[in-house]
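Audit log entry. Action: structure prediction of a protein-small molecule complex. Ligand: zinc ion. The ligand was supplied as SMILES and no pocket hint was given, so placement is left entirely to the predictor. Protonation state taken as written. Sequence taken verbatim from the request; no trimming, no tag removal. Recorded inputs:
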Amino acid sequence: MKLRRQRQCPAWSCFAVDIQCQRLLKHDGPHGASPNPRYAQHYSWTDADPNAIEVLPGNVWFHRPDPSRVLQTARRVGEWAALVPGAFFLWWACSLTTAAVFLAVDLLLSVRRAHFVDLGRFTAGVWPGSPAAPRLIFAVAWMWHGPERNVKRAGLEVVLGRVTVGVYALAPRKEWGERKRQRAALHVRRKAGRL
Ligand SMILES: [Zn+2]
């Protein structure tokens, strides 16, 4: 990663063209500016005579660093900078287990995409809550096999801030056998179709 911050030269050309220099700060030679990133030429001028503008071949468009990516990297570095001393402190003051749990919980809370592991009829996963959902610091809830009142419990979910961890059955026990048979039949049909 390049840590050197690239800045744009602040010089502006004469009034007639009125364009900011698109070269880097403290560049050598005359100022230059392409009106857009795809323009095949650039205007060239000097501080001594900004009215003498030449049109030269080549694009000199200044590519600004993407602020969202820079901010994301900065935030992640900041998080780790806060986390690692915290973990070492817990290791020193309590135990390695405490430090490991602390790191695991933090890793869990930084989940930005859903992750699931299927274990037969059951699945376990962690997923970020939708930004529109109400913010809960901590909540535990049963999951059900449907919206009706007579359905069985499917599993349990635990909400930790903006992340939900859940373990639940994909289908009730008596439907699972039937589902497996259906899936196997579908698999056979697909294979037959391909042959
Ligand atoms: Zn310049």
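Audit: result stored. The first strand starts at residue 31 and ends at 33. Strands lie at 31-33, 41-45, 54-57, 115-119, 122-128, 138-144, 153-160, 163-169.
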